[in-house]
Write a structure and sequence with these properties.
The complex is a heterodimer of chains A (111) and B (261). Chain A is mainly β and 111 residues long. Chain A is built from 1 helix and 9 strands, in the order H-E-E-E-E-E-E-E-E-E. In chain A, the strands form 2 sheets. A 5-stranded mixed sheet of chain A has the order 3-9-8-5-6, with no helix packed on it. A 4-stranded mixed sheet of chain A has the order 2-1-4-7, with no helix packed on it. Chain B has 261 residues and is mostly helical. Chain B has one domain: Growth Hormone, Chain: A, CATH 1.20.1250. Classes of the chains: A mainly beta (111), B mainly alpha (261).
Chain lengths: 111, 261
């Protein structure tokens, strides 16, 4: 039993130690203005990790959220947030602002 | 806006309410008093206010991923406390000393859960303070969401409390292990989002059968950390996290057995 725990722990450490990739991911930027994403469609390279920078130009907070991308992050008013996404298979990935879901909508297209 | 608010508040409320109600049920089963409840809520509220008030600053830590790191730390903290709780609860005799340790673990778990979910609720509501015409539907929605969340928690509490006494500990420990595994996998996802853990192609996509934004999907998210598109790392951590308390209970149970023979 103890050996099993040791193996599990080693596995976990090994997984953690592999760490982030060394290459710097391309940066893609988007803005939130009047509870809208601008631009509302972003085209990104497929199968590549992306550093998404979301600038919230509104004075109010917003939460960048996407079930398809498995991401959620609060961005307080007048601040920017960094969200790493992908690598994505080619396709369309909708996202929205959880605090204003009726207006704050957008899609990421991976090509 | 009303419905949006109900959903947002309910989502945040559910996770904390689930942990709270399972621990309340076990606390009552073990005869742990109710002093810890106020303490946990008080500490959690304080933590939530501090976190919400400083989210902007926290976000800038670690090159812009401070929010993910702090949230993951809270999740891992709750995971560790719940795992420790399940193990102590299942292996140690129910004496005053063990009850004290369990109470500390319960207090930290609930305080951390309220800190995490409470801060999001506060930030959401704070965004509408400058728009007085929106404030009434927002506060009403928050109230409704909180009421539904509390009802679900109460349902879980009474369901666990009404089990036969021999079943309560085992089923409660199992539910705690499931919740804890979900938290560990969520922490993993946050660290992937922060680029601290490697991002991978998802293992599968079950959104066609069970969408994450469906009611069942949301409930399963709160209960076991359901994701429609988990990465191999996330799924691996979920399984290890679920097995960990079982292994520890088996090991410590055997230890206990040796000492008595």
């Amino acid at each position: 039993m103890r050996r099993l725990i040791t193996i599990l722990c080693c596995g976990l450490v090994a997984m953690l130690a592999t760490g982030p990739a060394a290459a710097k991911p391309p940066i893609v930027e988007i803005e939130i203005r009047n509870h809208l994403f601008i631009p509302s469609e972003l085209v990104v390279p497929a199968n590549t990790k992306i550093k998404l920078v979301v600038y919230n130009r509104d004075p109010t907070p917003e939460e960048f959220e996407s079930y398809e991308l498995n991401r959620e992050k609060i961005i307080v008013g007048k601040q920017k947030a960094i969200v790493f996404i992908g690598p994505l298979k080619p396709g369309t990935y909708p996202f929205f602002g959880e605090f204003h879901p009726k207006t704050a909508q957008g899609t990421i297209v991976a090509r | 806006m009303l419905l949006t608010t109900v959903i947002i508040i309910l989502r945040e409320f559910l996770e904390a309410a689930l942990i709270f109600s399972v621990l309340l049920a076990i606390g009552r089963y073990l005869g742990i008093g109710s002093a810890w409840i106020g303490r946990a809520i008080g500490l959690g509220a304080l933590g939530g206010i501090l976190f919400a008030g400083n989210t902007g600053r926290v976000s800038e830590w670690f090159d812009g991923v401070g929010q993910e790191v702090l949230n993951a730390t809270l999740q891992i903290g709750i995971f560790a406390c719940l795992t420790g709780f399940a193990v102590l609860f299942c292996t140690q005799p129910n004496g005053a000393e063990n009850r004290r340790r369990l109470m500390i673990l319960m207090t930290i778990s609930v305080a951390f859960a309220i800190t995490r979910e409470g801060s999001e609720i506060l930030i959401y509501i704070s965004g509408f303070l400058s728009a007085p015409d929106m404030l009434t539907p927002i506060l009403l929605g928050a109230l409704v969401g909180a009421a539904i969340g509390t009802s679900v928690g109460a349902l879980v509490f009474y369901a666990l409390s009404s089990l036969a006494r021999t079943w309560t500990p085992w089923i409660s420990a199992f539910v705690l292990a499931l919740v804890a595994a979900g938290l560990a996998s969520q922490a993993c996802l946050l660290l992937i989002q922060a680029d601290w853990l490697p991002s991978q192609t998802p293992l599968w996509n079950s959104s066609y059968w069970l969408a994450e934004d469906s009611v069942t999907g949301q409930l399963l998210y709160a209960l076991i950390g359901y994701e429609a598109t988990p990465t191999p790392l996330q799924a691996g951590i979920w399984f290890c996290a679920l097995l960990l308390p079982a292994i520890l209970i088996a090991v410590m149970g055997r230890f206990g057995g040796r000492q008595t023979t």
